[in-house]
Specification:
With 244 residues, this protein is an alpha/beta fold. Helices cover 42% and strands 15% of the residues. It binds phosphoenolpyruvate.
Length: 244
C-alpha cells in the first residue's frame, strides 16, 4: 500500500501564507511516490481545496463534530468538510484530547460521523511521557485503539507519542516498530482481517533528516507531520524520503 504523508497545519495560516504554502506544495507534488494530504485550519480549507483542484494533493480537516448539523455553536460537521471538498479528517489528536478533554468515546462518535460523510478518519493515539516511563504505553495505546474505533472502521491510525510532538525528540526506530506491531495486533483483534490492511502513520517530530529512517520501519505506513508541514520544502523532502 502507498504510504501517506499528511500535514497538520494546526492553528497556523492566514490567507497569503496558506496560499503560498499550498502553491509550493502543489508545484512539487508530482515528484513523489506517496499519497499527500494537507489539513489546514477550517478558515483556509476552501482556499486550499480550490488551489489544489487538479493536483494529487488531498485536503482534510483537523477535527469535526460527530453530528451532521444542529445546535453546536462553533463546531463544523463532517458533512460540511466533505461539502467543501475535504476527503479526510484528523480525529483525536492529542491536542484535542488534552485541550478539549476529548475522550475515546467522543472520538469514536466523531469517527462514525466522518465515515457517514464519506471522509477518511485519521485517528490519533499515543502515550504521555509519564505513561511510557511507567511502562503503561502499550496498554494505553491499545486501549485507545480499542475504544476509539467503531465496528467497520475504515481509515488510518496515527501513532503519535505525545512527548515527541513538537519537541524534536523521537522514539527509537525499534520503539516505533514495537508500537506499530502492537497497534496492528490491536487492529486485527478489533476489526478482524480488515485491520491487517489499514495504514498506521507515525507522528511526532518527523523532519527531513529523520524521515527516511522512520518511514522504512516495518508497519509504518506514512507520517503525520506538524511543524515541518508548514514549510513546503521540508514537507516535500519528507515525502521524497518514502521509498517503499
Ligand atoms: C502533530 O502534532 O501531529 C505532530 C506530529 O507535530 P510535530 O511534527 O510538530 O511534532
Amino acid at each position: 500500500m502507498r504510504q501517506l504523508i499528511a500535514g497538520n497545519w494546526k492553528m497556523n495560516g492566514l490567507s497569503a501564507g496558506a496560499g503560498a504554502l499550498t502553491g509550493a506544495i502543489a508545484a512539487g507534488a508530482g515528484e513523489v511516490s506517496c499519497d499527500l494530504l494537507v489539513c489546514p485550519p477550517f478558515t483556509q480549507v476552501a482556499r486550499v481545496v480550490e488551489a489544489l483542484r487538479g493536483s494529487v494533493v488531498a485536503v482534510g480537516g483537523q477535527d469535526c463534530h460527530a453530528s451532521a448539523s444542529g445546535a453546536h455553536t462553533g463546531d463544523i460537521s463532517p458533512e460540511m468538510l466533505a461539502d467543501l471538498g475535504c476527503s479526510a479528517v484528523i480525529l483525536g489528536h492529542s491536542e484535542r484530547r488534552q485541550n478539549h478533554h476529548e475522550s475515546d468515546a467522543a472520538v469514536h462518535a466523531k469517527v462514525l460521523g466522518a465515515m457517514r460523510a464519506g471522509l477518511m478518519p485519521i485517528v490519533c493515539v499515543g502515550e504521555t511521557e509519564a505513561e511510557r516511563d511507567a511502562g503503561k504505553h502499550v496498554a494505553v495505546v491499545g486501549g485507545q485503539v480499542a475504544a476509539s474505533l467503531p465496528d467497520g472502521f475504515a481509515g488510518v491510525i496515527a501513532y503519535e507519542p505525545i512527548w515527541a510532538i513538537g519537541t524534536g525528540r523521537t522514539p527509537t526506530e525499534g520503539d516505533v516498530e514495537a508500537m506499530h506491531r502492537h497497534i496492528r495486533s490491536a487492529l486485527v483483534a478489533r476489526l478482524g482481517a480488515a485491520g491487517g490492511g489499514l495504514r498506521i502513520l507515525y507522528g511526532g517530530s518527523v523532519k527531513p533528516d529523520n524521515a527516511a529512517g522512520l518511514l522504512a520501519v516495518p508497519e509504518v505506513g506514512g507520517a503525520l507531520v506538524g511543524g515541518a508541514s508548514l514549510d513546503a520544502g521540508q514537507f516535500l523532502a519528507i515525502a521524497a524520503a518514502v521509498t517503499v
